[in-house]
Each structure stands twice: as structure tokens, then as C-alpha cells.
Design goal:
Shape: elongated
Number of strands: 9
Oligomer: single chain
CATH architecture of the largest domain: 3-Layer(aba) Sandwich
Order of helices and strands: HEHHHHHEHEEEHEHEHEEH
CATH class of the largest domain: Alpha Beta
Largest sheet: 6 strands, parallel
Number of domains: 2
Strand content: 15-25%
Structural class: alpha/beta
Distance between the termini: 39 Å
Helix content: 25-40%
Strand order of the largest sheet: 3-2-1-7-8-9
CATH topology of the largest domain: Rossmann fold
Mean pLDDT: 90
CATH superfamily of the largest domain: TPP-binding domain
Number of helices: 11
Low-confidence stretches: 41-46
């Protein structure tokens, strides 16, 4: 019978110090303290709709006005939020000079399912260092980016980052209507975001349900070589990310879970730290002084 996971920080520190290939798999709980609403949390986004049903290619084809209002709402929320201490701890840990103090000569990549851009903003806020020659990516946004805009025309598919608020005038204020539970406006396709290159209708640059996540080949290689996997703020229900920790364990690696509450499968972890990850994660990585 497997042992229950440990919550002993000192024991985790020993494992961390001996690990050479570390990955973190992050989900919505990482951004909860920043004020980013979640799909599955209490209340969730857009109570009047099943938010998950809006994150599909079929939903966009059927009602691009509704889907764009949903993503406009999320964009506006994200623009008002700031990275929290957990984002900052992971960003600091991605710095080789800082990481070497607690896990000498190790590698690290954050694999995030989040699309809110807060992890990238935390990385951007870190002082530049001489570890830029490291060929391993510091972060992989496997589900895309909320602020990417992609052309829907097959022959174009132009992608660009767009932080304009609102992204088009017709969406201005619709986030307040949705918060209030009001009837959504039906915005003509011609007034919704267009490709800046060819003028065709554009879509949000996130990976929708039924679509293939980004970087799966790179992530697979990182998972196979990892000897420590940090699971941060995710209920581990969306695959393929939900299977990464188990794969690390199968080849002899350790798993540490950082979640607010118990979640499915966390009894199989080697370490389980319950509580706000913006508190537990900096402490576990010995980076509280970085905040």
C-alpha cells in the first residue's frame, strides 16, 4: 500500500536539492489569488452559460458574437490583474543563478495550462541575467494565449499579440453587461475582431476543447527526463497535462502537489502542500525573500 503524501517542507527541500530536471505543471489555481476567475471554481465564469461549451470551434462558428464577448470579458479581467507571489516564485526559480542556490545544476520549465499571460508578465519582471544561453524553454503556454488573435482564413492564419482594450469598439462595455447577467448584444461579424493582415474574421488565440495543445513534442521530452514534477493549482482533470505527474513517477521521479484543496489523484503524490499556492510555493522553493 502506498504511503500518504508528505507535507514536510524539510524533506521536500532535500528532494529539491537533489533534483536535476524539474518541471512545473500549472493550472487555474496559480492565478486565483490574482483575481482571475476559473472555469470550474465556485460560481465560475459566466454563470448563465456553461463556459466550457463556449471554448470550442463549434461554438465560435455558431455564435462568434457570444464567444468574442466571453473572451473580451476574460481579456478585460486579465488586464486588470497582476502576477501574485506564486507566479513570481516560479519566475524567479526559472533563473539559473537563483535556482542553483536550492537545486544546483538543475534545469526548469514551467508548463502552464493558463492563458492569462500572468506567468509571462512575472518572467518579464525578472532582472535579465546571463543564463539566456540555456536552450531549455523557461515556460511553455500549452493552451495558447488570451491576447493572441488568429486569422480564421486557412490561407492566412496570421497570429499576433494584441493588448488593445477593448480589442474592437463593439465589445466595449459588454463585460459589464455579462457581469450583471443582462441580455448579451448580438454583434455583427463585421464589427468583431478582424485579421490585421488580410481583413478576414479573427478568433481568440487559445486552444479550444477538441484542438491539439501546443508544444506536445517538447513537453513530452521534458516530462520523460524530469525527476521532479511540481503540480501547481490544477485539479488534474484536463489531459494531456493531467497525466504528466503520473508519467514522471512511473520512471522514478517525485511529484509535489500545491493546491488549495484536495483533488483527484493527489494521494499518489510524494508531497502534498495544501493551502494558497502563493504562500506554499515560495516557501517550498525557498524563494519567499524574492517576493
Amino acid at each position: 500500500m502506498a504511503n500518504l503524501p508528505s507535507d514536510d517542507m524539510a524533506s521536500f527541500s532535500v528532494v529539491l536539492s537533489q533534483s536535476k530536471h524539474i518541471i512545473a505543471v500549472a493550472g487555474a489555481g496559480l492565478s486565483a489569488a490574482s483575481g482571475i476567475p476559473t472555469f470550474r471554481g465556485a460560481g465560475g465564469l459566466w454563470r448563465k452559460y456553461d463556459a466550457i461549451s463556449l471554448a470550442t470551434p463549434e461554438a465560435f462558428q455558431e455564435n462568434p458574437s457570444r464567444v468574442w464577448q466571453f473572451y473580451h470579458y476574460r481579456r478585460e479581467k486579465a488586464l486588470k490583474c497582476q502576477p501574485n507571489a506564486a507566479h513570481t516564485a516560479l519566475a524567479a526559480f526559472s533563473n539559473k543563478q537563483i535556482r542553483d542556490a536550492v537545486a544546483p545544476e538543475s534545469t526548469f520549465t514551467l508548463i502552464t495550462q493558463n492563458v492569462d499571460g500572468l506567468s509571462q508578465r512575472a518572467l518579464d519582471s525578472m532582472p535579465s541575467t546571463a543564463d539566456s544561453e540555456d536552450p531549455q524553454p523557461k515556460m511553455l503556454e500549452m493552451h495558447g494565449r488570451l491576447f493572441d488573435v488568429i486569422c480564421t482564413k486557412p490561407g492566412c492564419r496570421h497570429r499576433e499579440l494584441n493588448f488593445t482594450s477593448p480589442i474592437v469598439p463593439a465589445l466595449a462595455g459588454t463585460e459589464d453587461l455579462m457581469e450583471a447577467g443582462a441580455v448579451e448584444p448580438d454583434i455583427p461579424l463585421s464589427d468583431l475582431p478582424r485579421c490585421s493582415k488580410c481583413g478576414s474574421p479573427a478568433r481568440p488565440g487559445v486552444v479550444w476543447f477538441g484542438e491539439r495543445p501546443h508544444y506536445l513534442g517538447v513537453i513530452g521530452k521534458l516530462v520523460r527526463q524530469a525527476d521532479l514534477c511540481l503540480v501547481v493549482g490544477t485539479s488534474s482533470t484536463v489531459y494531456p497535462a493531467a497525466g504528466y505527474a503520473a508519467e514522471v513517477q512511473r520512471h522514478g521521479g517525485k511529484v509535489a502537489v500545491f493546491n488549495l484543496d484536495r483533488s483527484e489523484g493527489d494521494e499518489d503524490a510524494d508531497f502534498l502542500f495544501l493551502g494558497p499556492c502563493e504562500q506554499t510555493l515560495p516557501a517550498a522553493l525557498a524563494l519567499s525573500e524574492q517576493q
